[in-house]
């Protein structure tokens, strides 16, 4: 409930809104009862998708619960045009996916929160007054919840999409992308023409367009800058630096002299004449 600490919780404390408990079961065959905790959705930041006075806020929604099952549970109270599922409480709407095959957002998993939108405010009040003695069924013949091997099979089959449908989705995306690029180019051209006062907006598509701001280009620029800095650095500027460089040079020369001596001795031994 941390996501709505500054919204629903604070208003509830001021208004004294009570939270109701609603028992539900997976199906009529199961004996285990799960409890949903619900109240009227009230926040400071309003949203048209979750209208105040017609939206029911529910927490402790189990992982197997779906939008269709919640619609079925509250259909007895009235018309339910929309049900939204979120990982955490929020005043906004779930992100809409542009593509079925290439989703940008992960699906809601595990326990979650739900927002059930009713058509009338009287239907919301009816839902808040539901009888808590008789559990409601989430999975029915009309809207069954698929689980077990059947669910795994459907998830596996969904991973292998139809090539024609994928190609159609890609073509639609590219058409939209080309239109957006064409609009952007047209707007930049209009900006380059100048306004009534003579002011002109400089863009990357001018007479001398700038270089592409890529990662590879940035690395090349940084490498050139590091080389320039090395050239500008003062080496052996102080007296102690000069002495240290001379000592290191002498030590290196002595080591090279000893190595050369060993090489000459080895050559002499290899060329020694042994007639017997």
TrEMBL record:
<keyword id="KW-0694">RNA-binding</keyword>
<protein>
    <recommendedName>
        <fullName>RRM domain-containing protein</fullName>
    </recommendedName>
</protein>
<dbReference type="InterPro" id="IPR034890">
    <property type="entry name" value="Rrp7A_RRM"/>
</dbReference>
<comment type="similarity">
    <text>Belongs to the RRP7 family.</text>
</comment>
<feature type="domain" description="RRM">
    <location>
        <begin position="54"/>
        <end position="143"/>
    </location>
</feature>
<dbReference type="Pfam" id="PF17799">
    <property type="entry name" value="RRM_Rrp7"/>
</dbReference>
<dbReference type="InterPro" id="IPR024326">
    <property type="entry name" value="RRP7_C"/>
</dbReference>
<dbReference type="InterPro" id="IPR035979">
    <property type="entry name" value="RBD_domain_sf"/>
</dbReference>
<dbReference type="InterPro" id="IPR000504">
    <property type="entry name" value="RRM_dom"/>
</dbReference>
<dbReference type="Pfam" id="PF12923">
    <property type="entry name" value="RRP7"/>
</dbReference>
<dbReference type="InterPro" id="IPR040446">
    <property type="entry name" value="RRP7"/>
</dbReference>
<dbReference type="InterPro" id="IPR012677">
    <property type="entry name" value="Nucleotide-bd_a/b_plait_sf"/>
</dbReference>
<dbReference type="InterPro" id="IPR040447">
    <property type="entry name" value="RRM_Rrp7"/>
</dbReference>
């Amino acid at each position: 409930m941390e996501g709505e600490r500054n919204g629903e919780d604070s208003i509830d404390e001021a208004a004294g809104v009570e939270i109701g408990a609603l028992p539900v079961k997976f199906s009529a065959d199961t004996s285990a009862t799960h409890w949903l905790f619900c109240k009227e959705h009230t926040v400071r930041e309003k949203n048209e998708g979750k209208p105040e006075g017609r939206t029911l806020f529910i927490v402790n929604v189990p992982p197997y619960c779906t939008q269709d099952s919640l619609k079925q549970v509250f259909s007895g109270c009235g018309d339910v045009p929309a049900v939204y599922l979120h990982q955490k409480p929020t005043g906004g709407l779930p992100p809409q996916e542009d593509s079925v095959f290439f989703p940008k957002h992960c699906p809601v998993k595990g326990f979650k929160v739900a927002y059930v939108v009713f058509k009338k405010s009287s239907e919301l009040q009816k839902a808040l007054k539901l009888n808590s003695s008789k559990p409601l069924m989430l999975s029915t013949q009309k809207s069954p919840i698929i689980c077990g091997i059947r669910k795994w099979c459907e998830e596996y089959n969904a991973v292998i999409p139809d090539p024609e449908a994928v190609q159609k989705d890609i073509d639609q995306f590219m058409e939209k992308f080309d239109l957006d690029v064409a609009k952007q180019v047209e707007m930049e051209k209009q900006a380059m023409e100048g306004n009534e006062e003579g002011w002109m907006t400089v863009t990357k598509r001018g007479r001398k367009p700038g270089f592409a701001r890529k990662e590879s280009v940035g690395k090349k620029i940084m490498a050139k800058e590091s080389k320039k800095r090395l050239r500008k650095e003062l080496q052996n500027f102080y007296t102690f630096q000069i002495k240290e460089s001379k000592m290191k040079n002498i030590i290196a020369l002595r080591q090279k002299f000893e190595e050369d001596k060993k090489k000459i001795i080895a050559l002499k031994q290899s060329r020694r004449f042994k007639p017997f």
